[in-house]
Amino acid sequence: MVKLFPLLFFVSISFGFEKDQEAPCNGEKIQKVAKKGLRSLKISEIPSYLVELKNCKDKAKVKTIKNSANEKQLEDDAENNKSFVGRTSGCAYCIMALIVYLAFV
Amino acid sequence: MNHRLQSLTPFIFWFMLLSASLFAQPKLSFHLGGGFYSPTLGMLDPDSNNVIPSLSAFSKNMLIDWGFKYQFYPNARIGYARSNSYHSGKVGDSGFLRIISYRMLTFETFYYPRKRMELNFMLAPMYNKGTVKLTAESSSGDWDTLLGSYGNSSVKLSTPGEMTKRWFGLASMIGFRYYIFSWLAVDGKAGFIQNSYSEKKWKLEKEKIDGPTMNIKKLPVFNIHLVLGW
């Protein structure tokens, strides 16, 4: 397992150096995040996204990009997981019943 | 040919796992944290067994937790988590180390009642392990004779030995998670760990022996974790 970390590190770095020199504050990954949220990025795309943010010289804009990406993702997550029906809720009720039983017996 | 295929199997497995992680959106999360519980350690407690070294609150009541989870369905995650309890000291001149490891295969469902806030419900079959290790330092006459022939003085050799025991259990917990960022959260859980532990059939160097009489059948547990995830 430990032997895999250098390989993972190397692959991440090699993907991380794909950078858009033309418009670093408006790169491909930044646009993708703005449209689809942070979690639309694959793990292999995260280094590229971070490099694009690092290459953007306008620090105020970087902060805005990060905050809006974070807020959008939190809103999407809340929207996608607000309903709790079917098997997942059934499983939760079983766990609650088990805990209540263990607490009183 | 068959042997070659066998030796390639782990490589293919890890390659596929690594590729899937890198080129998919795996929704993986990792957690690190601690827990609080109050077991009756029986003969592993210095109050009931004067051979055992003194026990701090950290060794008796605290757990060190880590694990990872994979969201396989919009409201559900599976994963592996581990809670370890450590106690170290000296028994006579030997080093003593006791580890109780609660190893869980977690299944968790969750939902967001409000933005940033998550309620989760976890059920986890467990395969736990208890280890008691003694490391004795002693000199060996035969080694001293051999080393002496090369002009060395006598040396102390450490001889470790450990007794182990495995048992099944079940953890059930309810948790509340607050997302500081979409990729960083604090998670608190409360629930119970049930264990099917018996003091019989501990193993020491393939010998079956009797172990400590711990009363850990039903334990209330509180955990707090820092969760990092993508």
Please characterize this protein's 3D structure:
The complex is a heterodimer of chains A (105) and B (230). Chain A is an all-alpha fold and 105 residues long. Chain A is built from five helices and no strands. In chain A, helix 1 packs across helix 3 and helix 2 packs parallel to helix 4. The model of chain A has no long low-confidence stretch (mean pLDDT 80). With 230 residues, chain B is of the alpha+beta class. Chain B is built from three helices and ten strands. The relative contact order of chain B is 0.18. At the A-B interface, helix 1, helix 4 and helix 5 of A face helix 1, strand 4, strand 5, strand 6 and strand 7 of B.
Taking the alpha carbons of the first and last residues of chain A, their distance comes to 43 Å
Shape of chain A: elongated
The quaternary structure here is heterodimer
Rg of chain B, Cα atoms, Å: 23 Å
Number of DSSP E strands of chain B: 10
Strand content of chain B: over 45%
Q: How many β-strand stretches of chain A?
A: 0
Which helices and strands appear, and what pairs or packs with what?
The complex is a heterodimer of chains A (105) and B (230).
Chain A: H1 4-16, H2 28-36, H3 46-55, H4 59-80, H5 87-104
Chain B: H1 2-23, E1 28-37, H2 57-61, E2 62-73, E3 76-91, E4 94-114, E5 117-139, H3 141-149, E6 156-181, E7 184-195, E8 202-204, E9 207-209, E10 218-229
